[in-house]
Structures are given as structure tokens and as C-alpha cells.
Write a structure and sequence with these properties.
Blueprint lengths: L12 H6 L1 H4 L5 E3 L2 E2 H18 L6 H10 L15 H17 L3 H9 L13 H20 L2
Antiparallel strand pairs: 1-2
Amino acid sequence: MKRPEPRVPDRTLAELEADARVQQMKQYVQHGRVSTFAHCESVAALSRKIDKALHLHADAGTLLTGALLHDFYLYDWHDGGHRLHGFRHAELAARNAARCFGVSRPVQHVIRSHMWPLNISRIPHSRETWIVCVADKCVSLYETVFRR
């Protein structure tokens, strides 16, 4: 019996990073002086390191696409018009990623669940989601404390 080919992501990480819509994330501050784009790149890099260091064998396409697009909400959450940002942005980012790039359901789950446990009902169900969730918390703490 022939083994199925591994799923190749529709777009490479470099193609996503170069996309004008993803580049818009550079306009918005995430934590301290760090842009949303730089934050997402850092989360993707740390996610890759965690996966390799712990030999978790996560699906690289799902992991890295989810990490890069986990905050793809495209607004400045610091202004007064985005109350409850922490509770709402993951769903908006997942919808944007699906609409703009047609990302898979597993990638959408990574994006929707990255704010757990703040979003208590969005429990991570995959190793990719757990990795991004942990990487996001680590990077966010570092940016908030040391990158002001």
C-alpha cells in the first residue's frame, strides 16, 4: 500500500510574509515597541524551536502558518474602539486567515485557540495549537517586560 504524501501548505511562509495583507501587521503595535508582524514572526520562530527541541513532530505547515497568522486581525487594539480585544481577536484573526488565504481547519484551530486559557472554551486540541499557545505566552511576556 502506498503511503499518502505529506500535506504541503498552499503557501510557503515566505509567500505569506511577503503578502501585502500580512505586511499590514507592521503598522500596528502589539506589545511595547514591537509590531504585530514582528510579534508573529517571533512566535513562529519560537514555535519551531519548541517543536524541534522537544521532538514533538508537529506538522510544520500547520504550526508555522498558524503561528504567523495567529494575530492577523489588522487593527490597533490600543485605541478605545476595541474593547475585550483579548477575548475577540483570535476569532477575527481566524476568519481573516480563512477569507484571505483559505487556510485549513487545523490552522484555523491554532489561531482560534492561541489565547487559551483566557478564551476558556477554545481549548487546544493539537500539538501545533499547544506549541503556538505556549510560544505566544512566552514571546508576549518577553515583549511586554523587556521591549518597552
